[in-house]
Known about the structure:
It is a single chain. The radius of gyration is 22 Å and the shape is rod-shaped. It is an all-beta fold. A hairpin with a 4-residue loop joins strand 3 and strand 4 (45-50). Strands 1-2-5 form a 3-stranded antiparallel sheet, with no helix packed on it. Strands 3-4 form a two-stranded antiparallel ribbon. Helices cover 0% and strands 43% of the residues.
Amino acid sequence: MKLIISIDLGASKNLLKDKATLLLDITNAFNLHRYQTTTTGNDYVMAQTSIPNAARYRLTFVYRLNLKDNQAIRQAKSGNRN
């Protein structure tokens, strides 16, 4: 059995005094996610490589309406986690 390798990346940046966020998400970044199979019969050998999902890139812009200047964005605190 061969290893299945895939690299996913993501990054975000707050903008406009934390009223907006720009997010970049990359799935299967270098198109490494592929399956290789070999089928052997009495008089043949068939090798096949399939790539189920090509690399996907997503750029998202989020703007927070009605956010006041002194109001902070709620973040999960590590002390609340088990």
